[in-house]
Amino acid sequence: MMHLSQSLRREWQVLAADGWLKALLSWVPPLLFLSVWAVFSAGIARDLPIGVVDLDQSRLSRQAVRYYDASPALAVARAFPSVEQGSAALRSGDIYALVVLAPQLEKQALLGHTPEITTFYNSQFILIAKLVKSAMMQAQGTLNAQLDTLMNLAEGNAVLSQALGKAVPIRTQITPLYNSNNHYGQFLVAGAVPAMWQILMVITTIMVLAAHDRQQSLQTWLKPAPCRRLLGKLLPYTMILWMHGLLFLVALYGVLGWPMHGSWLVLGGAQLLTVLACQGVGALLYLATLDTTRAMSLAAGFTAPAFAFVGVTFPATDMPLLAQVWRSALPVTHYLDVQLHQVNHGQHLSEATPQLLALAAFLLLLGLAVLKARKLAAGSNRQEGVA
Amino acid sequence: MSWRELIQQELKAIFTNPSILFTVFGGVLIYSFLYPLPYTNQLPREQQVAVVNLDQSQLSRELERMVDATPQVALTHRAAGMAEAKAMMNRGQVQGLLVIPESFARDLLLGKSPTLAFAGDAAYFLVYGTVVEGLAQAADTLGAQAKVVRMVMSGENIALAAQQHTPIHLNLQPVFNPAMGYIDYIVPAVFVLVLHQTLLIAVSLLGCGQRTLAPAAGQRNYWQLAPAWQLVLVRALIFVVIYLPLVMYYFGFSFTYYHISRLATVSDLLAMTLPFLLAVIGFGMILGHLLPRRELAIVVVLLSSIPLIFSLGFIWPSSMIPVPIQSLVQLIPATPAVNAFLRLNQMGAEFHQVLHLWLQLWGQAIVYGGIAWLLQRRSRQRGMPPQVPAGSS
């Protein structure tokens, strides 16, 4: 016990001398998590600006415009006298879609000629584009059903339900499972925060070792007992990094009350394995380079693009083999698989086992780091022998 | 110190620094292949869907075939009831469900508008969107067919009926990225960000590294000898010259390689690139002066990447982002740059439509350059590089 308290005190001295490391271990991670959540805190996009070119100026065309404007996701922000002006606004990004209502719209509709309303929507911003597209389709569907029902009633179908049945032959009921209100934040934040957590863990581990190295050469310090000293050094930080992980889990699925169907125990266990994996990556990078900047560059190269590979935005099953390989080399990939399956599907422990085993395989990295530490310690022996 | 000497010293400082070289050339080159890699297939296809067919009529089997025929989904599993289908979803075997209700065919023929139920895994938006799109498309086609059949039965001409089955047809045309491909979506924005982040790291690594280097006894280094304005100017120009080919590599080779549209003229791109690079370089010099140790440059840039990318407005509409964050990211050169390049190169905007972004970049270049000059002058006047105690922040 004496030994433990001594080493903790010594650790505290190292920490006290490095304000940046202290910040990374305390307030920086919650702040980063909070900032990503804040970006998406609105959850659902509302009143996305669209423009209209109404060349018909009839009762029907104005009714259609009102229907689009009434859609919660859309807002008719501007009306243009010509298609050219409207398309310029679309190109400059002022509006997300341009609805063109051709002349004779009402006349053709009354004659039963199926006129066309053309909507150009900006598909460069795909996720926004999908929102605009489905809102447009929904608004048009409502308008069409109403027109159709009216026509059917006018034709003498006295019963409203029958008239409706003729207008809408098949009704559909669409259920977004596991994210029932299509909450944007729930989808992206739940994936982005663990990706950031991985970055934080790898760089914090590098900084912990570097801070020690600056005060006392790591080689000399490791010499008496490389394995025990290295692991003993990492252990207190395992707890802190794990706390950060649990913090965002509790914040998202406890405080914010996002649906959580799985087991906290499995999630916590997966997180612990992830922490150890990332510490292994960080320790190995530092011990292999013994240069903070170089280790940090490599850590950046390894962790920065992780979010693209985790399969939240783009499904992993549609990635090419090479991407799959790179993806499985990232601890956070396996962690996120566990997290999403737990919170959404409430998977049983046995179903989560493959991912947990994959995470456990990263413990090999810690083993390699220990080997490297041994080698360094032996190297310092030899150097002293020569001296 | 002559210009020539200063330029030589600067080049030597940059090209003998492995961390800078790795960040600039390694980073830009590796990311040009790594970032687009997951999106190689552009679109998710053939998402697996389970069907619960409670009707078992010929018509419902026809619907099944139509669903399977869409490129978006593939009917891979069959379940006897909802519970079994739900269990398949939970195991992650399928990404969507289709429930065909009992007496679906009869209700359809009687004009009672039966209800088809779809469900998709909305924990993954793109998957969900794809599943719903595929299922809705098949249902729409079947619905339209049923309607046409009914119109023909009530005596309409078949050619006319096929045209008139809806009162108004909505023709939705995606523009700028017609295939809705993911590479065309992510790469043009992220590549600008990669240029931004690597340049930011490189400039601050150089500045911070030199500032915190223990001085050789009695000697003053070249960056302390040269006047501050001259050093700032030379350094900015050298980094511009290093980055111009890299920008050309991204906008030229990479965009061609990935078939990403390039609607902007070279002169427009160049006009935007210059203030962009200068603004980033000025920002990097400031970071180099403020950070106590050089590796922290990487830490700061790396940690800000994910929040930054979501705040740029191409993933989530800017109008939905809380105002404090919106305002804060306006200070970062990546924000006007990504938006300007997307508008010019992907959306075909005229230069006058992005003029405000161009001015914003020049404003940043001038202000950040000015601050960098003041900080450099202060650090030079101290004669010695200030000894920042390790850890003070």
UniProtKB/TrEMBL annotation, chain A:
It is found in: Cell membrane. InterPro entries: ABC-2_transporter_component (IPR051449), ABC2_TM (IPR013525). The chain crosses the membrane at residues 20-40, 187-213, 234-258, 264-288, 295-316, 356-373. Residues 27-371 form the ABC-2 type transporter transmembrane domain. The keyword Cell membrane applies. Pfam families: ABC2_membrane_3. Keywords: Cell membrane, Membrane, Transmembrane, Transmembrane helix. It comes from the Bacteria. It is a multi-pass membrane protein. This is ABC transporter permease. The lineage of its organism: Bacteria, Pseudomonadati, Pseudomonadota, Gammaproteobacteria, Vibrionales.
TrEMBL record, chain B:
It is a multi-pass membrane protein. It is found in: Cell membrane. This is ABC transporter permease. The chain crosses the membrane at residues 20-37, 185-207, 228-251, 271-291, 296-316, 357-375. The keyword Cell membrane applies. It comes from Photobacterium atrarenae. Keywords: Cell membrane, Membrane, Transmembrane, Transmembrane helix. It holds the Pfam family ABC2_membrane_3. Residues 19-374 form the ABC-2 type transporter transmembrane domain. It comes from the Bacteria. The keyword Transmembrane helix applies. InterPro entries: ABC-2_transporter_component, ABC2_TM.
